[in-house]
Amino acid sequence: MSMAHSWRSFFRRDGEEPKGSGVVTQTQVVEGAVRSEDVMPAAEEVLAGRSELMTSEDVVEEAAPGEVEEALPEPGPVEEVPDAEAAVEAQEGVGWFARLRSGLRRSRESVVGQLNAAVAEFRDGEDEEFWETVEEILIASDVGVNTTSKLVRELEQEALERNVTSGRELRALLIEHATRMLEGPVELDVTHRPTVILMVGVNGTGKTTTIGKLVNFLPGSAMLAAGDTFRAAAIEQLQRWGERTGAPVVSRERGADAAAVAHDAVEAATRDGVDVLLVDTAGRLHTKINLMAELDKVRRVIGRQLPDAPHEVLLTIDATTGQNGLRQAKTFNEVAGVTGVILTKLDGTAKGGIALAIANEIGVPIKLVSVGEKAEDLHPFDARQFAAALFGDL
Amino acid sequence: MEIYSMFDTLGERLNAALDGVRGSGNLTEDQVKKVTREIRLALLEADVNYAVVKEFVSNVRERATGAEVSKALSPGQQVVKIVNEELANLMGGTPHKLTFASRPPTVVVLAGLNGHGKTTSAGKLALFVRKLGKNPYLVAGDTYRPAAIDQLQQIGSELGVPVYAEGTEPSPEEIAQRGIKAAADGGYDFVIVDTAGRQVVDLEMMEEIKRVRKASRPHSVLLVLDVVTGQNAVEVAQAFQEYADFDGMVLTKLDGDARGGAALSVVSVTGRPVRFASEGEKMSEFDYFYPDRMAGRILGMGDVLTLIEKAEQQMDREEAEADAKRMMSGKFTFEDFLKQMQMIKRMGPLSGLLGMIPGLNKQLQGAQIDDRMLSRVEAMVTSMTAQEQRNPKLLQNPSRVRRIARGAGATQQEVQRLVKQFNEMQKMMRQMGKGGVPKIPRMPF
């Protein structure tokens, strides 16, 4: 099993040992912030993890986000989680896998139910009806026609060649092929000082929120740059995250040049010896040429100050996105040189199959997934788990 | 299936599938099978939910089987026509315009997933109803997302629309209730309640929107849906129907290039129409939704109707006709040129406009349509003196060109190129005035 979903191995740091628990660093620990309900889900998670057929190593790693939650400052009323929701989570287990599963339940009843039925009756690779069902599942998960047909063709061929006749074998094959398509370098390169991470994406895909989450997991000290100078209250939103996580926020007034904010931030991060600088940017539709040119400028300004920077350019894609996600990934990659995709809002009914299409057709690796609203809902991407979830093998 | 990428529009794909079928006669079963396969793929690529596609395709199959192939249309076009009609049937023909409560205020609650544009739509809707003579009032009911209230307040202050906010402590339903009362007391007749984004699997949050709905006693609940939404639009819509009982949708981010099949999915499973189209960063880019036009977008067939209407909105017809007459008599000046250009700019981004012209979509895919070019040209023209604008011959003078270039932040070559292209246009206008069909010169932008 791939260990990619472990935060410990997620950051490439040139052999530098992580401080603290390996996830939380001193700077983020705020005293007196431990609430009893924060501890509970972590315990539940361990139990949930075990029931999900994970190795013991996995269980420990799955529990790590709970520690992060403990160390977080008391969230303001803004993030108050209703008790009932916490109760529901506790029942279902809060591993991201479990969250994903609960999110997929509805669709599972329809589509994956069909797969189960088909797999149970599967006899050989020439079963046309079976392949149509597989196609349908992939399409219904937003994988798209091109990638679906490629995957199904590969599978069909291999099933015939290997003379697969059992449903179990076949399901393993499905997951294997999808995993292979999804696998890529997931780790984040944070070997530089400062490491500059540029967040890009279409409006409303969750850039600012993801920054707020990611900062909790970063090794070393972090700084945020409020580069979304366009949307009303975007700067304030990032500042709230700064207050919650203790990371300083570099900002200018609304309407200021985003590249100037980035410039200030790189300067400040270099001066203060910050380990990681996260640069937020305004949401922009990939079809707006002038806004994409602005992004290019932000990138160039950063690169002029620090050769090789930005070291990571992360594109947020909303998991509910359909085939337009391909165009988003393609254009952002061309303009900003995307190093990884963050699949956000995977906590809904969306299956995020567009990730498969992006990995296959654009070739940009998926690095992170976000399955809920809390910081611990952000996870390094695990191709196999994701593929398994797609085919309802949970 | 690889051939898919070679064809951008369903019309082209159908023609390819039916290659060789010409003239009158009926479509054979085999042809229909080929055709329905193409339609199925096109709709799936447009993100129409697969279950909806199934049903839709079977309807088309029924109508297409044995359909008479007319002489005027190619078989492919014939099928496109059927598909288009079926789509239009499903989406409804005419826009669903706003109705107002007989006893004001009219209350509208906005609901939807995170990040689909509720807060922005709240502001846009406020501006929209103010243009209809209403006195709007905004209620900040998103108590979860950091700074969501600030966002609504900033939008409100930009528009000059009051925003009712109580911070994040009270429950959204309490805020809604008190906000609506405050609006009524203040004499506002149109209240828009913004709510937090929520995921449909989060039952606690879904119960909350149910309570907000109950407390607000709204005239209308609108589901705000991002046009990029994929296959799960159906589940999302069903859940919001169950908990928020929405009666219509706001389709957002229509200025992107998503086909928007999700709209079709939602309409077909809930029977609730799309009421509004939201399409840009500007607060004014919000309008009633014209369902018949969505069919063309989903199928990638362009949207001539919108283009025509947009042009109409921006032009004063009499003035335009007088201008045209004068220009064609050869008196086309830089002043006219500027006026025309500004008109085009008011119609929205050039890339969006060109996308509405059928057949152009494909050619434009690699092309760079840069709206800033318009601004550069505009800068050059406005750097001319009024005399120069009226009498472009003066621009033969290099020192004038130098001055204009400096004023516009352009190079002298750019100015010279503009003048040259302008002269060609002038020549063309004169020819058109004489009734000749001119060779169309390259436009300067």
Distance between the termini of chain A: 15 Å
Strand line-up of the largest beta sheet of chain B: 5-4-6-3-7-8-9-10
Structural class of chain B: alpha/beta
Largest sheet of chain B: 8 strands, mixed
Low-pLDDT ranges of chain A? 17-94, 103-108
Largest interface: A-B, 65 and 68 residues
Q: Output the CATH class name of the largest domain in chain B.
A: Alpha Beta
- Helical fraction of chain B equals 40-55%
Helix content of chain A: 40-55%
Strand portion of chain B: 5-15%
What proportion strand of chain A? 5-15%
**What is the molecular shape of chain B?**
flat
Oligomer: heterodimer
- Overall, the morphology of chain A is elongated
Number of helices of chain B: 20
Structure write-up:
The complex is a heterodimer of chains A (394) and B (445). Helices cover 49% and strands 10% of the residues of chain A. Chain A is α/β, with parallel strands linked by helices and 394 residues long. Chain A has three domains: 11-98, no CATH class; 102-182, Four Helix Bundle (Hemerythrin (Met), subunit A), CATH 1.20.120; 188-382, 3-Layer(aba) Sandwich (Rossmann fold), CATH 3.40.50. An eight-stranded mixed β-sheet of chain A has the order 5-4-6-3-7-8-9-10, with helices on both faces. In chain A, helix 4 crosses helix 7 (167-182), helix 6 (145-161) packs across helix 7 (167-182) and helix 8 runs parallel beside helix 9 (234-245). Chain A starts with 10 loop residues before the first strand and ends with a helix. The relative contact order of chain A is 0.15. In chain B, the strands form two sheets. An eight-stranded mixed β-sheet of chain B has the order 5-4-6-3-7-8-9-10, with helices on both faces. Chain B has a two-stranded antiparallel sheet with strand order 1-2. Helix content of chain B is 53%, strand content 10%. Chain B has three domains: 2-91, Four Helix Bundle (Hemerythrin (Met), subunit A); 106-298, 3-Layer(aba) Sandwich (Rossmann fold), CATH 3.40.50.300; 308-433, 434 Repressor (Amino-terminal Domain). Chain B has helices at residues 10-17, 29-45, 50-64, 75-91, 118-131, 148-159, 172-185, 203-216, 233-244, 261-270, 291-299, 304-314, 317-328, 334-346, 350-355, 360-363, 371-382, 386-390, 398-408, 412-433; strands at 25-26, 68-69, 106-112, 136-141, 163-164, 190-195, 220-226, 248-252, 274-278, 286-288. Chain B is flat and about 75 Å long. By secondary structure, chain B is of the alpha/beta class. In chain B, helix 2 (29-45) packs antiparallel against helix 3 (50-64). Chains A and B meet through helix 3, helix 4, helix 5, helix 6 and helix 9 of A and helix 2, helix 6, helix 8 and helix 9 of B.
